[in-house]
Specification:
The complex is a heterodimer.
Chain A: E1 13-21, H1 27-36, E2 41-43, E3 60-62, H2 72-88, H3 95-98, E4 101-106, H4 138-148, E5 154-158, H5 164-177, E6 183-190, H6 194-202, E7 223-224, E8 226-233, E9 240-249, H7 262-269, E10 281-283, H8 290-303, E11 312-314, H9 317-320, H10 327-341, E12 360-361, H11 377-381, E13 386-393, E14 397-405
Parallel strand pairs in A: 3-7, 4-5, 4-6, 10-11, 10-13, 11-12
Antiparallel strand pairs in A: 1-8, 2-3, 6-8, 9-14, 13-14
Helix pairs in contact in A: 2-4, 7-8
Chain B: E1 3-11, H1 34-50, E2 56-60, H2 66-74, H3 80-83, H4 91-99, E3 105-109, H5 114-128, E4 134-141, E5 146-154
Parallel strand pairs in B: 2-3, 2-4
Antiparallel strand pairs in B: 1-5, 4-5
Classes of the chains: A alpha/beta, B alpha/beta.
Chain lengths: 406, 155
């Protein structure tokens, strides 16, 4: 896809990152856990649930520790401000206030948890307006902009299910290429509480065991709290670029991708110069469901069929859970750190890769077919210049992004 | 760069009183929530006037999936068929099946200006990507039971 003649053709740099997950309140904590295999899965207390869990449902999730959850809107607001402060801490003073900025928020459920259980369809606060009159994302964006002291030239929320983050990056790139903004603050968040836990339990995708992406004994995933921030810029350049982000959708089914993965394949194939300069590493969506992992393996096989040196594939959901709308942004942050340190991380919880899979997966057990130890020849001999990130979302919305060294 | 906008709308009664013509193309059409049913039904009614299919779709979902979310919660949070629809982009599945279309799709929110924001995003897409010729911005108004298609194209 080419750009119009009026579009600014400078690369889009990733100039700041910040995140908060169950494994840490900073990017450093997040990355450290990816390399150490930290187990942050915890039971979820259901004492305050408006609808009690059914017998046999004992929810577990990757959760922020010791937080007041009486207001998810307040909790997410604090987390978004926190991750933004981390992401913007290294930027030239005043640049986000002085220059033109855009703000995009990616989330699936926002603060739905706060009002969805209210019996009355009217106001929950006595203010006279219904909580159902407005989407559960925009107030988070408004709260953030006010708290951060920003005056954005553009702002919008993106809700493309679990592909929301990469879709938000797609929107951000459009704004930058149209020269409407100098920088874009891309935010993503989702909090895991009774609404989504009940729902995913009903869909039978929550694992009774661990999240084991691409494993032959995978049984699903666990959900995870997360907030993340990536600051993009064309005005300030850095050593890591967001080379491209593409989206696609298919009307196959609501909760699973097509077996062929055509939609994800289209999104990935349209990434700029993917064939000329294929990635050395892929951070896959890797939810550990039967359907998702099969589809991604098929897509990667087709995508890199003609690539002489196939990329190695890893994922983050074993470490921080499936963070829904924040998943893609966390994966991009992980990609940035891998590019900077040249150290990839394995899927710690997967001992045996599915024997039917065709690709190379980065796992700990080097005896497995196509399995590579992080300390192996891949690590020593390969310079990681480009990393592809993939996301698959309910409703058949899929996305792929490419992150690379300048 | 200037753009043309054309809006077509249809009020869709719900629940359905008969099997829709697109039923065979949809998974369990009878389990669709109101937006999920209304979008393909409106497309079918407006198909001739809508003309060529789009290169990109923007879903502009005021209130996101709030009514469906509430329905899931109030029914005891135990129905997978209800939970499936508790995301504002899910309503596009049945629409895409009826359209027999696949391609880039964005679901945006910016209440109370969700539709206006989506149209602005559509114009920026056309401005920066010459391969895109026409974009549909599709909105469901729960209060009016109305679906609108705004066709955005370069002038």
């Amino acid at each position: 896809m080419g750009l119009s003649s009026t579009a600014d053709q400078k690369p889009v740099s990733i100039i700041g990152t910040g995140c908060s997950t169950a494994t840490g309140e900073t990017v450093s904590g997040f990355v450290s856990a990816l390399h150490s295999g930290l187990d942050a899965l915890v039971p979820v207390s259901t004492e305050t649930w408006k609808v009690a869990p059914k017998p046999g449902f004992e929810p577990r999730a990757f959760r922020w520790a010791n937080n007041d959850r009486s207001s998810i809107r307040k909790l997410l607001g604090e987390k978004l401000l926190q991750v933004f402060k981390e992401a913007s801490s290294g930027l030239p003073s005043g640049s986000l206030q002085r220059d033109r900025i855009g703000v995009v928020l990616a989330s699936t459920k926002g603060f739905t948890e706060d009002f969805v259980w209210n019996e009355s369809s009217g106001s929950s606060s006595g203010s006279g307006s219904s909580d159902f009159d407005i989407d559960p994302l925009t107030p988070l964006l408004t709260d953030f902009v006010q708290a951060a002291g920003l005056i954005p030239a553009r702002k919008v929320c993106v809700s493309n299910a679990c592909a929301s983050s990469l879709a938000a990056l797609y929107v951000a790139r459009t704004w930058l290429h149209a020269d409407r903004v100098d920088h874009v603050v891309v935010l993503a968040c989702d909090a895991i509480d009774s609404f989504v836990l009940h729902g995913f339990h009903q869909l039978r995708v929550l694992s009774p065991d661990r999240t084991r992406p691409f494993s032959g004994v995978r049984t699903g995933f666990h959900l995870g709290d997360a907030a993340a921030c990536v600051v993009l810029s064309k005005k300030i350049q850095s050593s890591v670029h967001l080379l491209d982000a593409r989206i696609d959708s298919e009307g196959h089914a609501a909760t699973r991708p097509s077996h062929s993965g055509d939609s994800l394949l289209r999104a990935a194939r349209s990434l700029e110069s993917l064939n000329l300069n294929p990635p050395e590493l892929v951070i896959a969506h890797g939810t550990s469901t039967q359907a998702n992992d099969v589809t991604e393996d098929r897509v990667f096989t087709a995508l890199f069929a003609e690539t002489p040196k196939k990329p190695v594939i890893t994922g983050t959901k074993w470490s921080v859970g499936h963070t829904l709308g924040a998943a893609g942004l966390l994966d991009v942050i992980a990609a940035v750190e891998v590019l900077k340190t040249q150290k990839a991380f394995p899927i710690f919880t997967t001992a045996e890769v599915d024997s039917t899979f065709q690709n190379q997966y980065l796992v700990q057990n080097t005896a497995q077919k196509f399995a590579l130890n992080p300390e192996s020849a891949f690590q020593r001999a390969t310079t990681i210049n480009r990393i592809m990130v993939t996301s698959l979302g309910f409703g058949g919305v899929h996305a792929a992004a490419l992150v690379g060294l300048a | 760069m200037t753009f043309n906008r054309q809006t077509l709308s249809a009020k869709i009664p719900f629940p359905a009183k008969e099997t829709p013509t697109w039923a065979a193309m949809s998974d369990r059409w009878y389990q669709l929530d109101q937006p999920g049913y209304s979008l393909p039904q409106a497309f079918t009614l407006l198909k001739e006037d809508l003309g060529a299919l789009p290169d990109l779709i923007l879903l502009a979902s005021p209130q996101a999936s709030n009514p469906t979310d509430r329905d899931f919660a109030r029914s005891g949070a135990n129905s997978p068929s209800k939970f499936v629809h508790t995301l504002p982009n899910i309503r596009a599945v049945s629409l895409l099946q009826a359209m027999e279309w696949s391609g880039p799709l964005l679901c945006v929110q910016n209440d109370p200006s969700t539709l206006e924001s989506a149209v602005e995003e559509a114009e920026l897409e056309l401005e920066t990507k010459p391969e895109l010729k026409r974009i549909w911005v599709i909105s469901f108004n729960a209060l009016e039971s109305e679906v609108s298609f705004t066709i955005v194209a370069r002038a």
